[in-house]
UniProtKB/TrEMBL annotation:
UniProt key word Transmembrane helix: yes
Keyword Membrane: yes
Protein name: CDP-diglyceride synthetase
Species this chain originates from: Marinobacter santoriniensis NKSG1
Alphabetical list of PANTHER family matching this protein: CDP-ARCHAEOL SYNTHASE
Ranges that cross the membrane: 45-76, 97-116, 122-142
Annotated keywords: Membrane, Transmembrane, Transmembrane helix
Amino acid sequence: MLVLANGAPVVAAGLLKGRWSQPVDGGRLWPDGRPVLGKSKTWRGLIAGCLTCGAFAFLVDLGAFFGLVFGFLSLFGDMISSFIKRRMGLASSARALWLDQIPEAALPLGFAVIWLPMDLWLAVLLAVLFALANILLSPLLYRLGIRRQPH
């Protein structure tokens, strides 16, 4: 579901082009003069990620509510990463190893530990594996034309 939460916004952007692409932060700037999140964090992406996870969770008997919350927490973790990167002066396309991966995996997996019969050690392992897969596979996906950035 982590892959769905983070892949659905990309698919939605490709399918819907410029429609519903309003940024979650409304284009506002933080007092440091930098964007709060940036234009790549859109309502379209947030809704697509949540609905996709909700539908998947429903189909595999985890419940739509669980999926909606899981998707939201993953994308919220991604927004936290973006917020921190903007405060560090990094562009939305800049690479920030581990910061780009861990919050979007840790928040929903922490929820899964509370909601499901899942051990904490398994959630930590899944978060690390998700981060490593993202780090190692992103360059390949970039070469295949699936990602716009090699990281």
